[in-house]
Specification:
Elements lengths: L8 H54 L6 E3 L2 E3 L2 E4 L2 E6 L14 E8 L4 E7 L3 E2 L6 E7 L1 E9 L3 E2 L21 E8 L2 E8 L7 E5 L1
Parallel strand pairs: 1-7
Antiparallel strand pairs: 1-2, 3-4, 4-5, 5-6, 6-8, 9-10, 9-11, 11-12, 12-13
Length: 208
Protein backbone atom coordinates (compact mmCIF):
# COMPACT_ATOMS: atom_id res chain seq x y z
CA UNK A 1 0.00 0.00 0.00
CA UNK A 2 1.28 3.52 -0.87
CA UNK A 3 1.65 6.10 1.88
CA UNK A 4 -0.54 9.21 1.57
CA UNK A 5 1.51 12.35 1.02
CA UNK A 6 0.53 15.71 2.61
CA UNK A 7 1.84 18.91 4.22
CA UNK A 8 3.24 18.81 7.67
CA UNK A 9 2.26 21.38 10.27
CA UNK A 10 5.66 23.04 10.00
CA UNK A 11 5.31 23.41 6.23
CA UNK A 12 1.86 24.95 6.64
CA UNK A 13 3.15 27.42 9.22
CA UNK A 14 6.06 28.37 6.97
CA UNK A 15 3.69 28.85 4.02
CA UNK A 16 1.35 31.00 6.10
CA UNK A 17 4.28 33.10 7.35
CA UNK A 18 5.56 33.66 3.80
CA UNK A 19 2.05 34.58 2.63
CA UNK A 20 1.70 37.03 5.54
CA UNK A 21 5.03 38.70 4.73
CA UNK A 22 4.15 39.00 1.04
CA UNK A 23 0.73 40.38 1.91
CA UNK A 24 2.27 42.99 4.23
CA UNK A 25 4.78 44.01 1.57
CA UNK A 26 2.06 44.19 -1.05
CA UNK A 27 -0.11 46.36 1.20
CA UNK A 28 2.79 48.73 1.90
CA UNK A 29 3.46 49.09 -1.83
CA UNK A 30 -0.25 49.67 -2.50
CA UNK A 31 -0.49 52.20 0.35
CA UNK A 32 2.61 54.03 -0.93
CA UNK A 33 1.24 54.19 -4.46
CA UNK A 34 -2.11 55.46 -3.16
CA UNK A 35 -0.43 58.19 -1.11
CA UNK A 36 1.76 59.24 -4.04
CA UNK A 37 -1.31 59.40 -6.27
CA UNK A 38 -3.16 61.46 -3.66
CA UNK A 39 -0.22 63.87 -3.29
CA UNK A 40 0.03 64.21 -7.06
CA UNK A 41 -3.70 64.94 -7.27
CA UNK A 42 -3.42 67.61 -4.57
CA UNK A 43 -0.34 69.09 -6.26
CA UNK A 44 -2.16 69.24 -9.61
CA UNK A 45 -5.15 70.92 -7.95
CA UNK A 46 -2.91 73.51 -6.25
CA UNK A 47 -1.00 74.12 -9.47
CA UNK A 48 -4.26 74.54 -11.39
CA UNK A 49 -5.52 77.06 -8.82
CA UNK A 50 -2.20 78.92 -8.91
CA UNK A 51 -2.22 79.07 -12.70
CA UNK A 52 -5.83 80.23 -12.66
CA UNK A 53 -4.99 83.05 -10.25
CA UNK A 54 -1.98 84.04 -12.35
CA UNK A 55 -4.06 84.15 -15.52
CA UNK A 56 -6.74 86.26 -13.80
CA UNK A 57 -4.17 88.76 -12.53
CA UNK A 58 -2.63 88.79 -16.00
CA UNK A 59 -5.96 89.71 -17.58
CA UNK A 60 -6.65 92.35 -14.93
CA UNK A 61 -3.29 94.08 -15.16
CA UNK A 62 -3.27 94.02 -18.96
CA UNK A 63 -6.57 95.93 -18.86
CA UNK A 64 -5.59 98.43 -16.13
CA UNK A 65 -6.40 101.99 -17.24
CA UNK A 66 -5.61 105.47 -15.82
CA UNK A 67 -9.22 106.26 -14.91
CA UNK A 68 -10.30 107.54 -11.52
CA UNK A 69 -13.29 106.17 -9.64
CA UNK A 70 -16.01 108.10 -7.87
CA UNK A 71 -16.98 106.36 -4.62
CA UNK A 72 -19.56 108.10 -2.50
CA UNK A 73 -18.67 111.42 -4.18
CA UNK A 74 -14.99 110.97 -3.40
CA UNK A 75 -12.48 110.69 -6.22
CA UNK A 76 -10.30 107.60 -5.96
CA UNK A 77 -7.00 107.38 -7.87
CA UNK A 78 -6.76 105.05 -10.84
CA UNK A 79 -4.72 102.70 -8.66
CA UNK A 80 -4.59 102.62 -4.86
CA UNK A 81 -2.07 100.79 -2.70
CA UNK A 82 -2.42 101.87 0.91
CA UNK A 83 -1.94 99.79 4.09
CA UNK A 84 -2.37 96.49 2.29
CA UNK A 85 -5.42 97.68 0.35
CA UNK A 86 -5.01 97.36 -3.40
CA UNK A 87 -7.51 98.25 -6.10
CA UNK A 88 -7.48 99.76 -9.56
CA UNK A 89 -9.61 100.61 -12.57
CA UNK A 90 -9.72 98.31 -15.56
CA UNK A 91 -11.46 98.22 -18.90
CA UNK A 92 -12.40 95.51 -21.37
CA UNK A 93 -15.89 94.60 -20.17
CA UNK A 94 -17.95 93.44 -23.14
CA UNK A 95 -21.68 93.96 -23.63
CA UNK A 96 -22.70 91.53 -26.40
CA UNK A 97 -26.43 91.88 -25.62
CA UNK A 98 -26.37 95.69 -25.56
CA UNK A 99 -27.64 95.88 -21.99
CA UNK A 100 -25.89 99.13 -21.23
CA UNK A 101 -23.10 97.51 -19.21
CA UNK A 102 -20.24 99.93 -18.54
CA UNK A 103 -16.94 98.99 -20.22
CA UNK A 104 -14.95 99.88 -17.10
CA UNK A 105 -14.94 98.38 -13.61
CA UNK A 106 -13.03 98.45 -10.35
CA UNK A 107 -11.05 95.44 -9.13
CA UNK A 108 -9.66 94.86 -5.65
CA UNK A 109 -7.41 92.11 -4.29
CA UNK A 110 -8.04 91.42 -0.62
CA UNK A 111 -5.93 89.07 1.49
CA UNK A 112 -7.41 87.46 4.60
CA UNK A 113 -4.54 86.24 6.79
CA UNK A 114 -6.87 84.32 9.13
CA UNK A 115 -8.49 82.35 6.33
CA UNK A 116 -5.26 82.25 4.32
CA UNK A 117 -7.23 83.22 1.23
CA UNK A 118 -6.79 85.82 -1.46
CA UNK A 119 -10.07 87.30 -2.67
CA UNK A 120 -10.86 89.15 -5.87
CA UNK A 121 -13.58 91.77 -5.56
CA UNK A 122 -15.14 93.29 -8.66
CA UNK A 123 -17.27 96.41 -8.73
CA UNK A 124 -19.15 96.70 -12.00
CA UNK A 125 -19.01 100.48 -12.19
CA UNK A 126 -16.42 103.15 -11.49
CA UNK A 127 -19.14 105.34 -9.96
CA UNK A 128 -20.35 103.85 -6.68
CA UNK A 129 -22.45 104.91 -3.74
CA UNK A 130 -20.12 103.32 -1.20
CA UNK A 131 -22.66 100.63 -0.38
CA UNK A 132 -22.40 98.67 -3.61
CA UNK A 133 -21.80 94.96 -3.08
CA UNK A 134 -18.97 93.56 -5.23
CA UNK A 135 -18.79 90.21 -6.93
CA UNK A 136 -16.44 88.22 -4.71
CA UNK A 137 -14.45 85.11 -5.57
CA UNK A 138 -11.56 83.20 -3.99
CA UNK A 139 -8.51 83.74 -6.14
CA UNK A 140 -6.14 81.56 -4.08
CA UNK A 141 -6.31 79.45 -0.92
CA UNK A 142 -3.59 78.27 1.49
CA UNK A 143 -1.81 81.61 1.08
CA UNK A 144 0.63 82.11 3.95
CA UNK A 145 1.96 85.48 2.80
CA UNK A 146 0.79 88.09 0.31
CA UNK A 147 2.36 91.43 -0.53
CA UNK A 148 2.08 93.88 -3.41
CA UNK A 149 4.69 96.47 -4.34
CA UNK A 150 4.57 99.00 -7.17
CA UNK A 151 7.62 99.67 -9.33
CA UNK A 152 8.12 103.14 -10.74
CA UNK A 153 10.92 102.12 -11.29
CA UNK A 154 11.88 101.81 -7.61
CA UNK A 155 9.80 99.56 -5.38
CA UNK A 156 7.15 101.39 -3.35
CA UNK A 157 4.71 100.04 -0.80
CA UNK A 158 2.20 102.85 -1.40
CA UNK A 159 0.56 104.41 -4.46
CA UNK A 160 0.04 107.13 -5.53
CA UNK A 161 3.55 108.08 -4.52
CA UNK A 162 3.10 110.25 -1.41
CA UNK A 163 6.32 112.26 -1.90
CA UNK A 164 5.67 116.04 -1.97
CA UNK A 165 7.08 116.61 -5.45
CA UNK A 166 4.67 114.07 -6.93
CA UNK A 167 1.60 114.91 -4.88
CA UNK A 168 -0.13 116.69 -7.75
CA UNK A 169 -3.74 116.46 -8.84
CA UNK A 170 -2.71 114.68 -12.03
CA UNK A 171 -1.20 111.83 -9.98
CA UNK A 172 -4.63 110.37 -9.33
CA UNK A 173 -4.73 109.26 -12.95
CA UNK A 174 -1.19 107.88 -13.09
CA UNK A 175 -0.27 104.21 -13.13
CA UNK A 176 3.10 102.87 -12.03
CA UNK A 177 5.37 101.11 -14.48
CA UNK A 178 4.81 97.73 -12.95
CA UNK A 179 3.80 95.58 -10.00
CA UNK A 180 5.60 92.98 -7.93
CA UNK A 181 3.36 90.46 -6.20
CA UNK A 182 5.08 88.36 -3.54
CA UNK A 183 3.25 85.41 -2.09
CA UNK A 184 3.83 82.12 -0.35
CA UNK A 185 1.51 79.19 -1.02
CA UNK A 186 1.94 75.85 0.72
CA UNK A 187 5.48 76.75 1.74
CA UNK A 188 6.57 77.78 -1.77
CA UNK A 189 7.43 81.43 -2.48
CA UNK A 190 6.53 83.12 -5.75
CA UNK A 191 7.12 86.49 -7.35
CA UNK A 192 4.83 87.71 -10.09
CA UNK A 193 6.24 90.67 -12.03
CA UNK A 194 3.68 92.65 -13.98
CA UNK A 195 4.57 95.38 -16.43
CA UNK A 196 1.79 97.93 -16.87
CA UNK A 197 3.50 99.47 -19.89
CA UNK A 198 4.54 96.40 -21.85
CA UNK A 199 2.38 93.37 -21.06
CA UNK A 200 4.76 91.04 -22.89
CA UNK A 201 7.09 91.36 -19.90
CA UNK A 202 4.63 89.86 -17.40
CA UNK A 203 6.04 86.61 -16.13
CA UNK A 204 5.81 84.15 -13.27
CA UNK A 205 8.92 83.26 -11.27
CA UNK A 206 9.23 80.59 -8.58
CA UNK A 207 11.68 81.24 -5.75
CA UNK A 208 13.02 78.35 -3.67
Amino acid sequence: MSRRQGFTLVELLVAIAIFAVLSALGWKVFDYISKVKERNTQHEARLSELQGAYQQILRDTVQAVPLTANINNKIQPAMVLQNGRFNFSKTGVTDPLNQGIAPDERVEYKYDANEKKLYRLKYRNLNQTGQDQPDSSVLLSDVEHFEILVMNPNELNAWPDPTPDLAQESDVQRLPRGLKIKLQVNGVEYEWLCSLLNTDHLKLNSVS
